[in-house]
Amino acid sequence: MYTPKVLKHFRNPRNFGKMKNPDGTGKVGNIVCGDVMWLYIKVGKNKKGAEIVKDIKFETFGCVAAIATSSNVTDLAKGQTLKKAMNIGREQVAKTLGGLPPVKMHCSVLAVDALAEAIHDYLSKNKKPIPADLLKRHKRILKEKKIVEEKYKDWIGAEEVVQKKGK
Predict the structure, then answer these.
(1) 105 vs 154: CA distance, rounded Å
(2) Catalytic member of 107, 110, 116, 134
(3) Catalytic residue among 31, 33, 109, 156
(4) Which of 47, 108, 138, 145 is buried deepest, with most CB atoms within 10 A?
(5) Which 3 state secondary structure label does DSSP give 81?
(6) Residue 28 scores a pLDDT above 70
(7) Helix orientation angle between 105-125 and 64-77, rounded to the nearest 10 degrees
(8) pLDDT grade, residue 86 (50/70/90)?
(9) What is the domain partition of the chain in residue ranges?
(10) What is the pTM of this model?
């Protein structure tokens, strides 16, 4: 059973859509359930000069929980410093949604991983230092992605073709 907050984010997702010229992009997926998330960020500076998530958008192919967690993580990250945004965890995502069924907790993991990947992408592109914990997460995500790509090499790429046609 989904909470009213989960259903609200699903029915009216916030920050949904593709972003033109993002500063960072994160893409993650789960081959078991078929969910795929793209998360885009624009980085700016706050009044203190710290880098913040100025704008954020997502595109998700997935279930109710996948869409709701994607929408929710964008709300949680928008306006936050990159450091605070990269520390948003699955528990925080689930809690602010009023909870998720245990079988759907992996959606909150995907949402925070997509955000982490977008921040990693931004830092990498701009040759900025990458915090050790973010680098560790990135390596885990890449390892999981490599396993999936090897196992499903004949299928991988099909969604990329669909994604490019949708531009």
Answers:
(1) 28
(2) 107
(3) 33
(4) 108
(5) strand
(6) yes
(7) 40
(8) very high
(9) 4-152
(10) 0.88
User: And the tokens for 62?
Assistant: 């997935």
Q: How far is it, in rounded angstroms, from Cα 37 to Cα 112?
A: 10
Q: What tokens does 137 get?
A: 């997460």
Residue 63 is among the residues annotated as catalytic for this protein: no
Residue with tokens 């989904």: 2
Question: Identity (one letter) of the amino acid at 133?
Answer: D
**Average pLDDT of the segment spanning 23-39:** 88
CA nearest 1: which of 97, 109, 112?
97
Question: In this structure, which amino acid lies at residue 105?
Answer: M
Query: Whose structure tokens read 């993002």?
Result: 22
Indicate the SS3 state at residue 145. Answer: helix
Rg (the chain; Cα; Å): 15
Query: Dihedral angle at the C-alpha atoms of 46, 67, 38, 35, nearest 10 degrees?
Result: 150
CATH 3.90.1010.10 fits 4-152, yes or no: yes
